[in-house]
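Format is sequence with structure; example below:
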Amino acid sequence: MRTFKVVNRRLFSVVGFSFLFAYILSFLFEGQVLYSLLEFYEVEASGYILAAIVGHFAGLFSCGYFVKSSIAAKYTILASIGVCLIATIPFFFAPSILWTIGLIVGGYVSGCAVASWGYFLKAFTPKNERIKTCADVLIYSNIIMIAVNVVAINLSSIIGLILSMFCLVTGMAFLWALPPITKNGWQERTENKPRGDIKNPLMLLVLFVFIITINSGLMYQVINPAFEHLTGLVSWYWAVPYIIALAVVRNLPVKTKRSRILYAGIAMIMGAFISFMLLGRTAPDYLIVNTLMLGGCGIFDLFWWSIIGEMLDYTENPVKVFGIGLSANVFGVLSGDALGIAITSVQLSSAEVAVIALTVVCATLVLLPSLNRHLVMLLKNHIYLTVYDGMSKTQQIDVIRKTETLEELTVREKEVLQHILSGESNREIAQALFISESTVKTHARNIFSKYDVGSRAELISTLLKNQSDL
């Protein structure tokens, strides 16, 4: 019965969020419903698109600073959906200032809703299945988006708008049915898991996501307009390679090396821009360019969505980590849009566009090895710290005693070491031992030197990886 309830919660969370995300993809976030409405009224699109993206970025980035509990997260999602419904109503009428206000407000609250879902991703999905949950959300939301887009482009933009609002109502119904995460239950889950320092890996991931998604903005502003004469084909095929890539990566064996998948994604994006430079603008050309581009995007999107999902175990505020992580994608798209608009305005050739895009890809190639190394070490530390946390006090002391040092630790250094192995930050150690944070750093450097390691990660690995208890 308990297993059924857990599965049911995960299902309701995935389905509810998928419908909400489908609304965002089909309307607010450069969606085809919005583009078809702007085209129908012959309105310049760039200002409206910019307003929605800036609002969405602000919501993602700021939400974690004021939503700090599971109850607040649930009501933020539900209230945001209600506001989005209201903000969408002006689009049934002729363009006015209410369109801009609606996009800014709707973009902001939808960003808050997406960030708040981080609580439910952490609570209702085991860590080892978060890549599947993220893949399911991205797959289902894109399938729904395709259906809405086909209607908006080929039948009626107003009917497409109605369908996008129906997605909001359906998502609200499923998310409303989710049970609240009780405070005691939440504390029990987080206190049993040692925390690690995710600041540096998160910032590196944010930089990586920002750079790689600049190409998404270029795609919206440069590649897509080049094939806009293929309206029928684009309306349904655009996201198909993305969905297929998500499905393939979702079902890869657990032991598959992540770095190899990422290099494959980079190769596909490079191939897309080279193909865009060399090929024409016919339907077969579009199939090649779009398959490579969206397939690569699918690989990368699932990679960083799932990594952010794994990082949620290291924080007491999943909304903040999830929101900041996803905001990097939005900021990358925004920057790519700006770059694409600039390229379009000066009328650069396809070859020059490809060179710019490939330069961005090369920057991600430089970051990838360091990013992968940091993330792998973070996950290994979590395993080691979890094992250490489950040992008895005698076993913990024995682990430290059996590991040779270049020089014996002082009494205070042994105390600091115990706290490091409990996953505490320098600030937490300083508060526990009633010393300054700089003093903790000095003790930590001395400990690293005596164990002949260069960081916490190496220290934890050295102490625990060869123990028989593992």
Q: What stands out?
A: The chain has two domains: 9-384, 391-464. The chain has a mean pLDDT of 82.
